[in-house]
Amino acid sequence: MSDVYIPGVRSRFNSEQIVQDLMRLEQIPRDRVLTNIDNLQNERSYWQEVGRRITSLRDSARFLFSFQNPFNERISRSSDEAVMTATTTREAAEQSFRFTVKQTAQADRFLSRPLDERMRVEAGTYNFTVGNDEISINYRGGTLRDFVSVLNNRGRDKLGASLIAVQPGTISLLIESKVTGSENRLSFSGDSIALATNTGMMEISNDTQRNISLTENNIRAGTIDGNNATASNVTVNDGILKLAPRTTAAIPVNMTIGSDSPLVLRLETQTRVETGDVYNIPQPPPGPDVPAGSVTYSGITVQNQPSNAPLPDFTPPPPPVRQDNMEVLNLVFSDGTTAKLPAISDSSSFTSRQYNLSDIARGKTITSISIENSNTHREISIGKVEILDPTSTSGGLRPLNAVSTSRDAIISMEGIEITRPSNQISDLIPGVTLNVRGVSERPVDLNIVANVDAVKDAIFSFVWHYNRLMTEINVLTSTSASSMPDIRTNTQRGDTRIVDEITYLTAEEATAMRERLGAFSGDSTLRNLKNNLQRTVSAPYPTSLERELTLLAQIGISTNASRSVGYNPAQLRGYLEIDERVLDAALENRVPAIRELFASDTTGDLLADTGVAFNVDALLRPFVETGGIISLKTNTIDSRINQDERRVANLDRQLAAKEQELRIQYARMEAAYARMEQLSNSLDNFNQQNRNR
């Protein structure tokens, strides 16, 4: 039944198939143009990928000599990170310091006794003071947990609270200052006093602070040799006691210190060291002065012979031996004994010092504080002397369970004692923030050095992007025979060994690279770029170590850094290798010269004008800048694609007209044949009718 013809339903001559076959022949030029468009689009994507690789290499090269280059980065190395660390900025200079941490900064942290977890806090106004900042809370009443939540929300970065579960069913309230330093005491006022005392956090105590005034009337002055000091040697002005070299002074105290007393002696010291010779050479004695005299009689004057008192030869006493003694402070007790206080240190500004009296006095009565300046070239000043209980807060409260008490950090840098309210000290060394972590018995060495790891990472990045671009160029310009056919001609066009040698590619990346093998085998632009890159990275450059460091190979970067023996085709393709051992050795002590190797200034205008990275950047700039080579390549391809797309559109219109014409022609043929067949049938019927007659 397949040959049954149904008029209007099936073509007698299979016209539809004939039209399709004819149109398939007519579409061959259009298909060729579409294939060319696909090839052009692939070429454009290849150039765009080259542009991305060039941009990546250029960025990594520019990073090596830009303002943010890694050679300016600094890191700190501490001999004991449990005691002190540091963070650095690019402004820090390479240098070394020695520190001793005598005391870390702390904040007030007060703990209550165990409380019933169902305890409620009454409504009221709870006032707290941290340093000069006051936090006031109008509380409506509620549970301890609710009160802690309100206090934390209100206190923010100044004040905090928490609950500690000591035993099942009980909790302890911890209220703490979040600001360290002796000047930032945590104080209670208003209803917070009742809260502190009712919870066993505080107790009412007498104010034990005692300020000792420094006036001329209560200071006893003297000298080391026992003579009375003159007014110019020991002076008191505006509460500052100043002692010249070789003088002494006593400050009356008259206070009994219990063996378990929390009282401390706090005072400020300042020193001034004479740079010249302060010793005045005494002159010889003048000898006796006896008048000669005369007698006059009757106009005659008789002159006495002047007296003659021969003097022995004068030998001036030798100058005193220079004395440097920083143990100048002593406590004098009522039983006649004394106790030396720890040595002070030189400081051009007043530095606060604190001593625990119970450890020194041991229950004795302190009659005075003695200052003995036995130094020959050092003036010592004392200011703001006070005896106080450091645990007491304003308002006459003393903590019963002080987890920590506010105090300053005290460190010694190269023998100079420094006090700061915080454990983060950023105003001591430019570009360096010290982080005080713990007290040290031994000095801690802190070295500010170049960030070698950052430099190494930047060099690795430069070599990686260089090799990645070189790989792209090698793949696109490959001309050796291989097993991969050309997309357009289905012929061999590239050496697959180039891809097989690259071990870091994924399977998908390797397949994509094989597809573009030899795509630009006839393009001289990429070949010239490859040759210029190889010359740039292998050329010598001026550095401060002319005889030792002028080539990348001297820091372990070359095409055969591994020093392999025998033929290796991969090493002939221009890839760079890194001998990490050689590079690490060079970075250990040649960082300035390595920086000059990558970019240096030879004209004195503070701008880089030569070097590996600088020249690589200059070489690549014309390729990726606005209107550069890559842009021209892709724009040209875009123009060709646009032309072919317009040609495809014209061909589509022509093909549509042709198809319509063929369909019309074959339809007419079908209609004519149908009329002829109908006429034939009519004639047959007519003849049949005539025969039947």
Which percent range describes the beta-strand content? 25-35%
Share of helix, binned: 25-40%
> Mean pLDDT, as a whole number?
85
Oligomer: single chain
Task: Give an overview in words.
The strands form ten sheets. Strands 14, 16, 17, 19, 24 and 26 form a six-stranded antiparallel β-sheet that branches. The protein has a five-stranded antiparallel β-sheet with strand order 1-33-3-29-30, with no helix packed on it. The radius of gyration is 49 Å and the shape is elongated. The model is unreliable at 1-7 and 481-492 (pLDDT under 50). The chain has 13 helices and 35 strands. The longest helix is centred in the last third of the chain and has 64 residues, at 629-692. A hairpin with a 2-residue loop joins β7 and β8. α1 runs antiparallel to α13 and α2 (28-63) packs antiparallel against α13 (629-692). The protein is of the alpha+beta class.
List keywords for this structure.
alpha+beta; six-stranded antiparallel sheet; five-stranded antiparallel sheet; 13 helices; 35 strands; 26% strand; disordered N terminus
Give me the secondary-structure topology.
Layout: H1 15-26, H2 28-63, E1 74-78, E2 84-88, E3 95-103, E4 109-111, E5 115-116, E6 120-121, E7 124-130, E8 133-139, E9 142-143, H3 144-155, E10 159-165, E11 170-177, E12 186-190, H4 191-198, E13 202-204, E14 210-212, E15 220-223, E16 234-237, E17 240-243, E18 247-256, E19 264-273, E20 294-297, E21 300-303, E22 329-333, E23 338-340, E24 351-356, H5 357-361, E25 365-373, E26 378-388, E27 397-399, E28 402-404, E29 409-413, E30 416-420, E31 424-429, E32 432-436, E33 444-450, H6 452-476, H7 497-500, H8 507-515, H9 524-538, E34 557-558, E35 577-578, H10 580-589, H11 591-598, H12 612-624, H13 629-692
Helix pairs in contact: 1-13, 2-6, 2-12, 2-13, 9-12
